[in-house]
Amino acid sequence: MNASIIKTTKTPERLAGAEGNFYTSEKNSKLPGMNDRIRHLRKQSVETQESLSIERALITTRFYKENHGKYSEPVMRALNFLEICRQKTIYIGAGELIVGERGPAPKSVPTFPELTCHSVDDFHVLNSRDQQRYIISQEDIDIYEREVIPYWSGRTMRERIFSHVPAEWKAAYEAGVFTEFMEQRAPGHTSLDVKIYQKGMHDCKKEIHFQIQNLDFLNDPEATEKLEELQAMNISCEAVILFAERHADLAEEMAATEFNENRKTELLKIAEVCRRVPANAPRNLWEAIQMYWFVHLGTITELNGWDAMNPGHFDQHLTPFYEKEIAAGTLTRDEAKELISCFWIKVNNHPAPPKVGITARESGTFNDFTNINLGGLKPDGTDGVSEVSYLMLDIIEELHILQPGNSVHISKKHLINF
């Protein structure tokens, strides 16, 4: 990739040795219940202006130019995801414990030209809206116009779908019966189950290999298509492992020049966590949270889903790790709260990729609609409320940020207890 084309953000947080005692600058803006780290990260998340990053679009465009037609659609998408994970800017901010961004920095949103390609007019609209503005430089707009828009004209998923729908469907769309069709969004609305807390990507790769070995090409007419999908799944596992390893590398580089001993220890711990997950199943709370976050980022980076990529009952998933460490004396409630608060702020760092056309002018969507379920019942019907549930309620009340959304589930069992 031509380095002069890819624009990356190299903030002080991106470079090694820029940490210092950053906490002291926040002590005049106390918010109840937060420690100085969380106050700093919250302030950064709330005050950072949303921006558009063209980095992902350039990586994807170059990859498709060079490889279109060489692979099946699933493998092509997986290899593109691998290329993104290999090339995108890696960011670790001052004081962060949970790491990873979809763009090159917090609140920096990539575009997805293979879904729907923004026009130059779209960018000018988004850059100048009175409310919910996404800033982008004229230089980036010019690069996008020159490098991205010409290639994707007539090739986007949205255009390809529109070319196959009946006239009545198009008329309904144009009449405003429904809107925002495939405008920077792929199919979404998912909740991850407990599997990722029990298995790592290496375990998934073993299962994929087993399925490939047992394909029946003589009797199953879909065996070839299944093979392509399984190969794509295997590549995707490799991509997200690589993504985590790059964060580990950066954390170690930063630790090597860090003068603050506490922060150096944290950076080395971040590297250890990123070497462990998502390649392997998490063993403790920190690894479990980071495991989920890498999987979440992989999903919304590969092809941004239509809102609501959710962790489901996050409290229930994290409770076994929390209780095990509390019992062993390797974790305190305050340390757990700090880690989960870091995750909460990470989610808030990710506004929704903006739409195109008339929707870019009118849509107020700024939210990726990540939702966390609290309480409710476990799969076996027993009470799902735990200390982690209440800890998360405390975090929600203290942080007061847009994302993630939250749903409190109350069953008859809870009402009886009241």
Short description:
The chain has 418 residues and is mainly α. The protein has helices at 36-47, 55-67, 73-87, 120-128, 138-147, 149-152, 157-162, 167-174, 201-213, 223-256, 261-276, 285-302, 314-328, 333-348, 357-362, 387-399, 412-417, and strands spanning 51-53, 108-110, 190-191, 309-310, 371-375, 405-409.
Report on the architecture of this protein:
With 418 residues, the protein is mostly helical. The protein has a domain of 275 residues. The protein is 51% helix and 5% strand. It has a two-stranded parallel ribbon with strand order 1-2. Strand 5, helix 16 and strand 6 form a beta-alpha-beta unit. Helix 9 packs antiparallel against helix 10 and helix 13 packs across helix 16. The longest helix has 34 residues. The relative contact order is 0.14. The N terminus is likely disordered.
Q: How many helices does DSSP assign?
A: 17
Sheet with most strands: strand arrangement: 1-2
Distance between the termini: 61 Å
Radius of gyration: 22 Å
